[in-house]
Amino acid sequence: MLLIFILIFNIQCNYLGQVSQIRSDLIRVYLFPHSHDDVGWIKTINEYYFDYHGVQQIINSYIEELIKDKSKHFSQVEVAYFKMWWNEQNNTMKDNVKQLIQNQQLEFLSGGWCMNDEATTYYEDIIDQMTLGHKFLLENFNYVPSIGWQIDTFGHSNTQALFSNMMGFNAWFLGRIDHQERLEREKKKELEFVIHSDEENSIFTHINYYGFYSSPQGFDFDISNPKRNYVSNENLEQKSEGLDQYFKQQCKSYRGKILAHTLGMDFEWSNASSYFQQMDLIINRINNNSHKFNMIIEYGTPKQYIQALNQQNVSYPFQKEDFFPYSDHPHEYWSGFFTSRPSFKGYVKRIGRYFQQVKRFYSLVQMNNIICDETIIQDLSEALGTAQHHDAITGTAKQYVINDYFNLIHKAYIKMDNQISSFLNYLSNTSEILHSQCQFNESDTCDSLFYPLSQNKTVIVTIIDTKINNDGQQEYLKMLIPKNLNIKVDDELGNPIKGEIICINDQCTLYIPRQINNSKLLHYIKIMVDFDNNSKIIRLDPKLIEIKKDTKIFDKFILNYKVYLSNSSSLSSGAYIFRPIGNATDYGDYLSAIQFSGQIIQQIYFEKTTLKVWISRFDNQDIFYIDTFLDSIDISDQQGREIILQIHTDIINDNIFFTNSNGFKFQKRRLNHRESQNIKIKEKIAGNYFPINGAIMIMNKDGNSACAVLNDRAQGGSSLIQGVIELMLQRRLVRDDNKGLFEILDEQEIIKGKKLGIRQMISHTVIFYNHEQQTNLLREFQYQQDLQPLLYFSTQPSIRYSVLQDLFQEFLIKQSDINLSKLYIEPWLQKNQYLVRVHNMREEGIQKLKFPKELTFQETTLTGNQELKVWEHNRLKWSDKYPKEQNYQYKYDEVGPMRIKTWIVTI
Ligand SMILES: *[C@@H]1O[C@H](CO)[C@@H](O)[C@H](O)[C@H]1NC(C)=O
Ligand SMILES: *[C@@H]1O[C@H](CO)[C@@H](O)[C@H](O)[C@H]1NC(C)=O
Ligand SMILES: *[C@@H]1O[C@H](CO)[C@@H](O)[C@H](O)[C@H]1NC(C)=O
Ligand SMILES: *[C@@H]1O[C@H](CO)[C@@H](O)[C@H](O)[C@H]1NC(C)=O
Ligand SMILES: *[C@@H]1O[C@H](CO)[C@@H](O)[C@H](O)[C@H]1NC(C)=O
Ligand SMILES: *[C@@H]1O[C@H](CO)[C@@H](O)[C@H](O)[C@H]1NC(C)=O
Ligand SMILES: *[C@@H]1O[C@H](CO)[C@@H](O)[C@H](O)[C@H]1NC(C)=O
Ligand SMILES: *[C@@H]1O[C@H](CO)[C@@H](O)[C@H](O)[C@H]1NC(C)=O
């Protein structure tokens, strides 16, 4: 009796703080009221926020409840929304919120700008969107998130696991994993385990019971739930028993006696008071009768749960493999979204890479005491952050929502570009001269080049190159030029530059080699009409050739374009799902082909009825640049089509291939097999597709013969046939896949008054190499692709840039061979602070650093929100059976291979 008395007493006074110590036989359940507010999906971000019962109301509502009752907790996930709400509040409310955070009633899970997708995002963009959210929380609340929260993403990547640890998370929570694997793990009590994403980093992982993030079935009391079944005197006992049974069942799948469960679904909690009231009735019933139920339920946060769990001293299994592709049904693999909406994926990737360089340039300008407008960086960060959301970059939002994301980024990009233009004016002591980028696509011309040339004006092409220590290496610039003009290109000293022009179907492209010189950031060349005939630019002559489906391109590989027809059953391809009827077949008929053979460039061009292809190589190397223009896909026969590119090689890869995870580390894949689980793969094509965002590679057993394909945006890909790499380029469908979008993936554009499927220019780089001896080669191409120089066109007879003083000029010590380290710099909280990162992209080899004496460096976790030493000291340790290895300890001034280090630098 005494025991129960104390128990009740405890419940009343401090919502259970010590209960479990008093009676260790009780099952203890933490319920997590949490937000799941998609940053755009069926509606746009603004619609979701301002809607009746929308996010604004949701946050108002739960905050009010937390203020009223200290036993209530809430976990907010999406900082994008929280910032919108925060900016509307008065000081009284702001103080209240700060108090709630201090009480630990309000926690932020993940704390990213959004819950980013894990398949189609690039690693730099993940870091940036997490940093953006963490910076907001640090700046406003001095708050450091400690829990990762990826409960809705469609599969989980090795990189996200790795970064979760590097960001200072003690654990992360996942929802969706392969349905067969879930059952296995439930049986073996392996829904909690430790992921070792590499030799140094591990993260405790919790898989939510039954795979989602909602309330236990029958206990979703939200006013938005039409099936809600409120508690009454009549059903209270029955409902309490039901919940008790549910948790006793759940207990069988986890180790120990502490359980966790989410409360809430998409856009729930707009009437938190009624939700809590209902739940309270059942919780009180169960807690007040612990002799019957042997269970204590309380509201809490994942952070509290993880701390309690950590004290249990239980040993957990470990895992190395990632979780792709996700499937929730034997015939439904979520590998379609790896490719869905390639134009949006391409745009986000391109602007993302542009932004990395721009931030560095911007910081350098600012360090030279030139006035900059920081809101411009903030706007583009937020727009790109939003785009990483798991229904944005994935291509699984409605068309008009995708258009909204496009506009958001485009507006911010234009502002950023204007800022760059004004920097260039400032640095060249000119004013009001427009410097603008122009983009390549199929038939459009670059006005900023064509128009002035037609007026006999000189065009200055400013080259912003943020690479480091790559002096002397050669790269190639490519520009569309007017077809009827003879042009001349001069370097900065006025010397004519060599170049070659290829004209195909009235479209002319100029290729010029460029020696990299990293002693400064800004370079330029001059393009003008050639009247004196002293140009060193040569036009190459075409030679007719024949290309068929088994033709070896440049005697090296066969390039095929094929089509998968989508299944027309109720389980069909959609924005998420890939489900082809059978093997891919040839796509389109061959028309014509020509070849150009210059000193600089060799190019093969061919047309099929469905597409056009340019395959270029420079200096006769075994590196091939493929540009594919994919025309509108014909679906007039009501048949969905998914188009792929195949590279056929002679490599014997024996069902093994490698795909890099968010462009970061390579993951080994084996056809029809998962390393960690015994899973039957019923869809032989879709179930073997993996996300490729960076590169896919095959090699023979000895590794001395390898082929890798790099892509310019996220795509699905695989190696289904010996020696063949395939990547999916585009999908145009006629059915929805019933995963909630309820809109058919059929992107269109209007061309000459006709509605067509959207057309695309997509690029790949194919590399043949010796993987054993050239371990870093693949990374070299990734490095070059990411750091392609930015070209700005302006019209003026001449230009002269003043040189910027660069405090980081010697920060990265020059290697004896090629440099593969990226340096990131962006403004931080204080005016004289910068967030600085170094990513050593080498697979082998250390990057040495030399810290400039006049600057203070403080090493931090990946998102810059806490000192690394503090995190390493405070982090929770978990026991598992992972064999401990003696790793090389990198020194403070070393960055190991494929490692990233982050500092806050004060100037
Ligand atoms: C601050 O905002 C809250 C919530 O909107 C409101 O209830 C309160 O009256 C406001 N306080 C002041 C001083 O304006
Ligand atoms: C919340 O729901 C309760 C019960 O349905 C209702 O009485 C109350 O008016 C609602 N509150 C708001 C703010 O809508
Ligand atoms: C059950 O416990 C709650 C507090 O946890 C208390 O307010 C309530 O009065 C109790 N009910 C009964 C029937 O004992
Ligand atoms: C944890 O468990 C291990 C054996 O499983 C035991 O050796 C150790 O003392 C325990 N630690 C604590 C703090 O209970
Ligand atoms: C900038 O241009 C102005 C005139 O346009 C000139 O007076 C001034 O000396 C120039 N400054 C530099 C640093 O070249
Ligand atoms: C080509 O680019 C221009 C502007 O850069 C754009 O307006 C046009 O829609 C693009 N065309 C295609 C086919 O992508
Ligand atoms: C460009 O210069 C050439 C040669 O000086 C001249 O023939 C032509 O008319 C000029 N074109 C324009 C548009 O000024
Ligand atoms: C499809 O391709 C696979 C792999 O090449 C092959 O084993 C299978 O026989 C093909 N199926 C059909 C129906 O052609």
From TrEMBL:
GO terms for molecular function: alpha-mannosidase activity. The keyword Signal applies. The keyword Disulfide bond applies. It comes from the Eukaryota. PANTHER family: ALPHA-MANNOSIDASE (PTHR11607), LYSOSOMAL ALPHA-MANNOSIDASE (PTHR11607:SF3). InterPro entries: Glyco_hydro_38_C, Glyco_hydro_38_cen, Glyco_hydro_38_N, Glycosyl_Hydrlase_38. Residues 1-16 form the signal peptide. Keywords: Disulfide bond, Signal. Residues 332-409 form the Glycoside hydrolase family 38 central domain. This is Glycoside hydrolase family 38 central domain-containing protein. GO terms for biological process: mannose metabolic process.
